[in-house]
Amino acid sequence: MYVRALATLLSQSTRSVLLLGPRQVGKSTLLHSLGPDLTLNLASPQTFREFVARPERLEQELLAAPPTTRTVFLDEVQRVPALLDVVQVILDEWPGRFRFLLSGSSARKLRRGHANLLPGRVHVHHLHPLDALELGTDFALDRVMAHGSLPGITAEPNAATRAADLMAYADTYLREEIQAEALVRNVGGYARLLELVAASSGRVLNLQSLSSDAGLRHETARRYVEVLEDTLVAFRFPAFSGSDRASAVAHPKLFLFDLGVRNALLRRPLDRVLIDDRGLSFEHLVAYELHRRCGSRWPEARLFHFRTHAGAEVDFVLDVGGETWAIEVKASTDVPNVRLAGFAALAERTEVKRKLVVYAGRRRLAVKGVDVLPFLDFVALLGRETPRHSP
User: Fold this and answer.
1) Across 77-86, 137-146, 169-178, 231-240, which has the greatest mean pLDDT?
2) How far are the Cα atoms of 58, 155, 179, 211 from residue 187, in angstroms, in the given order?
3) Residue 254 is inside which H or E element, if any?
4) What fold is seen in the domain 5-126?
5) Strand, helix or coil at 323?
6) Angle at the Cα of 72 from the Cα atoms of 68 and 76, rounded to 5 degrees
7) What is the DSSP letter of 359?
8) Which whole number is the average pLDDT over 62-82?
9) Angle 350-352-357 (CA atoms, 0-180°, nearest 5)?
10) What's the pLDDT tens digit per position in 280-315?
11) Which residue in 4, 5, 85, 128 is deepest, having the highest Cβ count within 10 Å?
């Protein structure tokens, strides 16, 4: 079992928790590790029927529970959003009596059900696939770029089984289950858009092109992309503009949450990285290391990409702890060609505290005032905590 970075934070707190994340990232495993006294799995058909018909039953059961029942785990709570109102009543009327551990895989379904997200009463956290530090000695660059880092996929020793599991995730969950939850109606159009999003993952989002290629109205394509974000299988980095908005590209970059799932959707090999895809796949890994530290672990962090209409570009801009870091990504194993135009254009708009190039080589270098770091050195630099000051 992999040790998750969130585990320490959650175990040291006594506050109730809503843990959101895509399916199979390990939410249930993490919350079970906190030792709940009572677990209700709402993915179970019987449990679902019992509580969707009478959500008030939760309060009745807990009031009848022995004093030793203090921590209550509600798994897949988005299936019965009304239970969150019951949780609020219990937290308000019996403060300190219970701690709730809640998991969910669809923020959209919670909102559509007009769910009470318990502001001020529950801390909301996000769980992602494994990052490089969580993988530890199991991290292997090419393997992660081929099949991603979902915990169950990574722990599976058989390559054929890993590939079959990824295909099932892409086909069964991302296509069929999202439709079954009534999040989309035109499953054919949604499936086409999903493949196009996978093909364009890591690039600047062009909704006009996506809608045209998928044969969908622009508004429908926009809504389907929102479905992907709300079900936590896609995320975006907004464009950084600074004070000179006119000269900077304003569209965000959109990423699927896991490379293995992306590759399965595109029917690409799941045992190796295609040569023509290596650069973009490596950029995904850097994006994931940054994105997976935001929220719970870096609550004040903001992430952007930067590109001018003249073509100057910085892959990622990290604004955290009062500092701005400019990060370029190169998949080469040799000393990369460090281009300064993007760094210079960004520096015209904001003070850049640190300029970094992350590459697939093994040696740490300094080139033209830029720190050139191997991927794992970059991961170690980020660490598990917010970088409030430059090292």
Assistant:
1) 137-146
2) 35, 32, 7, 14
3) strand 253-256
4) Rossmann fold (3.40.50)
5) strand
6) 160
7) E
8) 93
9) 130
10) 999 999 999 999 988 777 888 899 999 988 888 999
11) 128
